[in-house]
Amino acid sequence: MTPPSTTSQIKKRILSGVQPSGIQHLGNYFGAMKYHVELQNSGMESFIFIADLHSLTALHDPLIRKQMVIDLALDYLAIGIDPDKTVFFRQSDISEHAELTWILNCVTPVNILEQAHAYKDAVARGVKDASAGLFDYPVLMAVDILIYKPDFVPVGKDQKQHVEIARDIAGKFNRVYGNVFPLPEPKIHETHGYILGTDGASKMSKSYGNVINMFADEKTVKKQVMGIVTDSTPVEDPKDPDKDTVYNMYSLFAGNDEKNSLAAKYRAGGFGYGDAKKLLLEKLMEYFRPYREERERLKKNMDHVKDILKKGAEKARETAAATKAEVWEKVGLNI
Ligand code: ADP
Ligand code: TRP
Questions:
Q1: Coil, strand or helix at 36
Q2: Taking the complete model, does pTM exceed 0.70, yes or no?
Q3: Suppose 78 and one of 19, 163, 295, 299 were both cysteines; which one would form an S-S bond, judging by CB atoms 3.0 to 4.6 Å apart?
Q4: Which domains does the chain possess?
Q5: 153 in ligand 2 pocket by Cβ < 6 Å?
C-alpha cells in the first residue's frame, strides 16, 4: 500500500517544534530556529510550535515552564517568525496532540522506543528515574508531525532519528488501519545541522554546558566566548583557522571577506586566540543587537504575544481536528 501523497498541496508544508528548555543557544539558532525563518520566507506553508508538552518529560516546575514558554515565544518572534506567514502556536493548546499519542502508542512497537536516543542518553547519563513520558517522547513527537501532514521537518541532525521514528510509526498505522499519514522527510540544514560546542568536541547542547546563548547579557556571553577551548599554539606562531573553534564560530556570522581576512591573520602568526575571541564577541553582539531590541519591544506587550499564540492555535486546530476525524474513522472510535 503506498502512503498518501502530499503532492496535491500546491505549496510544500514544513512543520517543526522546539522545546522550551531555557535560553536558546547558537546550535538551536543556526540548526533550527534561523532555518525555520528562512523556510517560512521561502514561500513554504509553515507550522512552528512551542513543544511545552515535551518539556514535561524533564521539567517539573510550573512557574519555570510558563516563563520558558514566554521566553521561547519572544525569541522566535524576535528573530522573524511572522504570524502572517507561519502558524505559530503552543502544542498544549491543541488537545489532539495528547489524544492521538494514545492511538499511535497502540501501534508503536516498544523496541523502536528502546533505540531512541533521548531515553538512551538519559539512561547512559545515569538518570535512574527516567519517566514513561521520556520513553514515549518520540511517539508524542511523531503525532506533532503527522497530525499536520507536512512534507518536511526542519531540525538539527540530532533530531533526525526522531523524524525517522515518526515515519516508521506512520507506516505502521497506515498498514494496520489504512492510509492516513504521508511520510514526512527530515530537512537538515546543509552546513548548520551540527554546531559544535565551546569545548570544540561535542554538539552544542544545554545538557553539556558548552553553549553560547543568543540573547544572554554581554557579561555572560563574554564568559562563554572566553571559555572556548583552543589549542596551545603560541601567539607568534601561524595557526590553521579551519581547525579552530573560535574561527568556525566566527564563520557562522561573517561574510566571505571578513572570514578571509580573519583566516589570513591566523595564517600570518602574531595573532592569538584571545584576539580572535574578542572579534567573535563583537560580531556576536552586533549580529544579535537588532533581534535583542525587537525582543525587548515585544516584551513590553505580552498581551499581543499571547494573542499571536492564541490565533495560531485556532488555525492549527483546524488541521489537527481534520486529521483526528480521519483517524477516529479509521480506528472505529466514531460510532
Ligand atoms: P539541546 O540539545 O540544547 O537541548 P534541543 O534538543 O532543545 O537542544 O534542540 C532544539 C532544536 O535545535 C532541534 O531542532 C535541534 O536539532 C537543534 N539543535 C540543538 N543543538 C544543535 C546543534 N548543536 N547544532 C545544530 N542544531 C541543534
Ligand atoms: N524533540 C524536539 C527537540 O527537542 C522538539 C520537537 C517536539 C519537535 N516535537 C517536534 C521538532 C516535532 C520537530 C517536529 O528539539
A1: helix
A2: yes
A3: 295
A4: 13-195+302-331 (3.40.50.620), 216-295 (1.10.240.10)
A5: yes
